[in-house]
Amino acid sequence: MPIRAAFDQVPELYDSVRPVYPAELVSDLASLTGIGTGSRVLEIGPGTGQLSVQLARLGCDLTAVELGPRLAEVARRNLASFPRAVVVTFDFDTWPLPEEPFDAVVSAASFHWLHPDTRVARVAAALRPCGSLALVDIHHIAGDDAAFFADEEACSARWGGILSGAGAVPEREIPYDDAEFVDSGLFGAAQFRRHIADIEYSSATYQARLLTYAGTLAADPAIRAGLVREIGELINNRYGGRVKKRYMYELRISRLRPRSPAVGEPDVT
Prior knowledge:
Helices cover 34% and strands 24% of the residues. It is an alpha/beta fold.
């Protein structure tokens, strides 16, 4: 199974433990892209709808393309009260793009799973002239529980390094990066917005969260079980049964450049 398809093993768990996106981020997304009632929006990799429901509440005509059939079923359930939202089960890398373009393409914590050689061009092809691409990335950053993440890294190393790199990173070390899109010549320079959220977990909820990570899901079941058990014991025995994790939600908005009309063709941009 490709690692990017691993999330489909645990759709209900994924839906219950993955947090929704900050309301301030959704407000920024709507403001910077101009989407709202009647806007045609394409969402790539919605999972079970953590961002999809918030987009649907804006009144968008939402098409969400999800690779995992079980994730897609949960997303449909979560979007059942929004008749203008449709979930399509397909791999976006090969999904036939509709003839009518979209006002915006949105992808939250999933764009990196797309084929790197074609993803920018495919997104550009899906957009109307001067349409917007909105990407959301989630970073684990340094907060009050840096000691826990050092202990977690040590624990992970004993089980093959499944969680290597998942610990606390200082926010200042995360660059504002839009080179892939600017270098393509298809998009202009991006606008960025960053939002910080602290989420507290019990040992049980943290263990459940671990079981929705792609690397953990792809690991040998015995190794996965041993790692999750040991981290639960670490939280209970050394941290009083609760830990807090600080996340940075980064919104990156890139606008499609107007294309130059061919000789003799009217400029309609």
